[in-house]
């Protein structure tokens, strides 16, 4: 029995190495896609601010906040945090912030989202954000670049 496990260990390790090499692409894809969704939403909000205010006053039921403050905060979050997410700068913090925006959107607009397929999209975006919270930005991020730059400057190469 041990022979079978030993025989499977090498191919399993090779497969694991192969898939971990592509993790940077998955993390980048998740970051860019979710950022695009939120940026697009923020652009719609500032594109017709009067309608945005009306929606926040009468349609969205944001708990504990005045509708105008909620509109400003949601728009700010949808326009600023995606830029950090795309760049991979403070990836985990940007993903946490956008997760909060996503959760507030679901809580505020749940009745309407639950009627259609809209809720499923929020679950998808939340899952993609969770992956970036857990794993960070990956190799294709400013976080990784800055970390590798700082670690190489603290450990000079000796000949």
Fold topology:
Blueprint: H1 2-21, H2 23-47, H3 49-59, H4 67-87, H5 91-115, H6 118-135, H7 142-154
Helix pairs in contact: 2-4, 2-6, 3-4, 4-5, 5-6
Structural class: mainly alpha
**Unreliable runs, pLDDT <50, ≥5 residues?**
none
Looking at how many chains there are and whether they match, the oligomeric state comes to single chain
What kind of sheet is the major sheet?
none
Which geometry do the CA atoms define?
Answer: elongated
Number of strands: 0
Range of helix content: over 70%
Through-space gap between termini: 48 Å
The radius of gyration is 21 Å
Give, in order, the helices and strands: HHHHHHH
Mean pLDDT reading: 90
**How many individual helices?**
7
Strand content: under 5%
């Amino acid at each position: 029995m041990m022979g079978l496990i030993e025989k499977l260990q090498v191919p399993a390790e090779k497969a694991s190495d192969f898939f971990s090499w592509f993790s940077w692409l998955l993390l980048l894809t998740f970051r860019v896609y979710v950022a695009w969704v939120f940026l697009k939403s923020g652009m719609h909000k500032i594109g017709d601010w009067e309608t945005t205010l009306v929606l926040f006053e009468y349609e969205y039921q944001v708990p504990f906040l005045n509708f105008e403050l909620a509109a400003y905060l949601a728009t700010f979050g949808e326009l600023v945090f995606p830029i950090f997410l795309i760049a991979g700068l403070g990836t985990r913090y940007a993903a946490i912030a956008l997760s909060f925006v996503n959760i507030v959107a679901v809580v505020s607009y749940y009745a309407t989202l639950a009627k259609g397929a809209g809720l499923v999209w929020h679950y998808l975006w939340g899952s993609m954000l969770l992956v970036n919270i857990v794993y960070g930005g990956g190799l294709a991020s400013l976080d990784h670049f800055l970390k590798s730059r700082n670690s190489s400057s603290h450990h000079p190469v000796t000949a």
